[in-house]
Amino acid sequence: MKRTMRSHNWRSQMTAALAAALLGLSLAPLSVAAAGDSDDTTGGGAEIEKPADPIESHSPVEDPVDPVVVPAPDDPVDPVVVPTPDDPVDPVTAPEPDDPIVEEPDEPATPIPGDEGSGDLADEQDIVVQDDVVGIDEGQEDGEASSLASEAAIEPMAVGSPDEASPPFIYWDVKNASGNPVGGATFTIEYRGFARWAGATSVDDCIASPCDGPDLDPDPGEFLVKQFGGHNVVTDTRYQITQQSGQFSYGEANYERPSSNYQKSIGYSGGFNNAHGQSTHGFGTFVQQFVSVNVNPMPNPALPNQCGLSIALVFDLSNSLSDRDVDNSKNAGVAFIDALEGTPSSVGIYTFATFAPAGSNTNLPATTVATDDGADVVRAHINGLSRPTSAQGGTNWDAGLGQVAGGYDMVVFITDGKPTAYGTPGSAPPGNNDYGTRFDQIDLDTAILRANDLKSNGAFVMGLGVGSGVDEENIKDVSGDIEGTDYYLVANYEALEEQLEELARKNCRGSVSVTKQIVDADGEIIDSSPAGWFFTAATTDAVLVADNESLVSSLGRVTDEETGAVNFRLNLGTDPTASRTVTVTETQQAGYELVQQNGVNAVCEASGAPVPVTNKGALAFDVDVKVDSIVACTVLNQEPPKHGALTIEKKYLNVPPETADDASFTGTYACSIGGNETAAGTWTASGEGPAVLTEASGSVPPNQIPVGSGCTVTETGPDDTALPNTSWEWGTPTIEYPEAADSATVVANDAVNVVVTNTADRVYGNFEVTKIVDGTADSELEYSGDWQCVLGDETVTGQWGPIKDGETWASDGTHLIPLGSECSVVNENGRPDVPVADDPSYSWDGEPTIGDPVTAATQASTIIVTNTTLRELGSVEWTKVDDSGAKLSGSEWELAGPDLFNDGDVLAITDCTADSCAGPDADLEAGVFQIEDLPWGEYTLTETKAPAGYYLNSDPITFTIGKEDPASLEVTLDPVENERRDPPALPLTGGMSRDFFMIVGPSILLLGVGGMGYAHLRKNRREVA
């Protein structure tokens, strides 16, 4: 989205505001309107918006309004200050957003704090924007007008591709101090209700489509809201947003300058801004300031003082390197490998720029350099490194260190600048658009964390800073404080080669390495790093360095499987001309023999030049080691040609024990090397166990097959008559070769075994279970139970169901029911407790009825399991009596019960005394009541009409229908007694006396006259009002 700062007319607004303050009026805040559908497109300068909803002067004001205070022009607004790096960072062409933001003028806008839920209207700024131009008074100086306008203005936001949103809506964005979008922030948005903010809703930054929250803009750091908390954004309402949280390593957002208040509000004015929908209003840009993250560098672990480490080389390929620098960096890496070649070392290669690996480069995991082949692989990888495009030429220490796998003894981190990126820009963490255009603290902090991870896994992280652009403190943070140990600084990439070579030689200087290799009869290497070969080094005096750093005259070591090499270090003091003759002796392994090379037992070299070797018997040699030389020797061994044997074993899998012991199996075998047959023959087996192999005419015996021969085996199908019955059949045999290969390779002085396994397949049948419910039950109920199928001594069990009423469960191939088994339903243990969940009057009538067993067959037979339900309803009886126990007729009642009773309504009951009762009372006797067919639950009985001449007994009577005490299905209540009503006393003539009217009459007359007067008075008052 695009936005353009507008200048604003502020003088007329200030005049109106001050005038309002002097008059003591409460000015309702005026705000910028969100774009809507109005046809008002009037242009021109700014105008003063009339106060909204003026408050009557006689009404109390809940929220007093403070006078509007506008900062004087000579009070400058503190701009956002971004520290300028002491040294330039790598120039990076960051990917441009689809719709760049253009800001005018450069001076950041100052927010006018909004009110947060207090109802105070005074903190909002009145702003009127019409069309594309906001006027400035002609008498106002440009600088002063621009300053005040920038403080007060909330900018109109131009809507365009890719968002294509239709107004009205509200838009704002979040950027860091360098203008890059920052994703991951959370805001609260509110609309203005009556005298207060309302509808507070949290708005999380949507960073990828689809957006399912209030924010509809999928671009990180951009917010577009059309609806929140059930409220649709409209053009005549004020809105306010407040930031809740920002992204990792950022502080809270400021509105274009450092401030303690992070709220802004917008609203409506007298007219609409470009109301046809081409633009709308937003909150502008929230600038997030970087904050320091408390990341403490870990000290380096102790570096093993030995020659033969696992080392990772991490190369910086950022834009700050010229092509010459890249070439020099690669030359230095190759020199490092040259110096280590022949030692029991391994090296991995990694690169970084904005991303890691840098550009199209790939990583090389730890690779041995003890052999020529291994060293060549690493050198070729280094020579193939290339610098990425300039858009990806940042310096991402975090990614560079984070890509290095664990298991290294040392990580050599080469860089020539400051870190300018972190994570995976554009991807991780969400909203990370830091493509490496500047140094920010987060770039270093994350790199420290990655270095700490490596150190915690035992790796020594060594920084190697190249050139003047390196910040020594930054290098210390990721490596350590000790120059010459934790880190090194070199002047340029020309000097890097010497430094790397020195690092390589540091632990290996004055040592001899021995690499063991195994070759075949033709001299081809078949194992370049064999483990378990023991070598002994001996000198005439104690100069060999043992593992505990003591000096000895004899020392033994064993090759490992990673490098196939050992190293012996010598302590020859400080004399640069010192040297010693070292006698190296191999302990020969059984079946192998040492292979001389040009008549000597080993070939040695130092710095690529041959070193003379003198044989010492069949398995030893002497070589001179100088104080500063790295001697690398290679010893070859060969296993002489030998013979081996082929064996075949017959096995059963899932074969019935009744199978005949003498089942006969036959087959063939054939062996070859390079397509040439070396052995062939047949084999036979009777039941399980070893087979008998017979060589073919003219072939070698099966125990004299040449080593290295590959042998294959076949089988002729067995006779089915060996199985117990016709329900079994032989399956296809499986032939298993050692190590899951497709043939068996003959080894020396041993037998290679091939296993031929036969299976017997059972022919299976099936059966079904159908569920029937006789009576009333919930349709969603499910039923299940156990079944078993028996054939001879074999029993198969399982569970049928769960199924509903009328459904059928069927066994399948997973149940493995032998064909012909007798299958029966054992029980129904999965029946629900009650047939009707919300009516306990229903119950199961006894146990289920289970059908007869069936025979498992290819066409399944059915067993029917039937359940019957029973309903038991209750009744209640009571009598209406007087104080003497005589039954009273004519009473009426109401009975309230559970929801299932009378459709949840109260039942009206009258005393039935007729020959047949049409109402609920089933007892014909007067004063006796009987209510039947009552569902289970709690009831309340209340008398609503008493018998004539008796007082109403309004005490409610409660009882419970059910089976569990104190409930009962047949409830008989205690008799309900009514108190007799006494008749009034009358004169003997049957009427009232004359004296009574003489006494009471005047009082009644006075009351009537008084009432008429009071009514007249109220009428007159209403008319006056």
Automatic annotation (TrEMBL):
Query: Whose protein is this, by species?
Result: Flaviflexus ciconiae
| UniProt feature, compositional bias: Basic and acidic residues | 47-61
One GO BP: carbohydrate metabolic process
Q: Where is the composition biased (Acidic residues)?
A: 96-107
What are the Low complexity biased-composition ranges? Answer: 66-95
Residue limits of the VWFA domain? 310-503
Q: Which UniProt keywords apply?
A: Membrane, Signal, Transmembrane, Transmembrane helix
Q: Where is the signal peptide?
A: 1-34
PROSITE patterns, A to Z: VWFA
Q: Pfam families attached here?
A: DUF5979 (PF19407), SpaA (PF17802)
Instruction: Identify this protein by name.
Output: VWA domain-containing protein
Give the domain of life: Bacteria
Membrane-spanning ranges: 996-1017
Extract the SMART domains matched here: VWA (SM00327)
- Cite the residue spans of the region called Disordered: 34-121
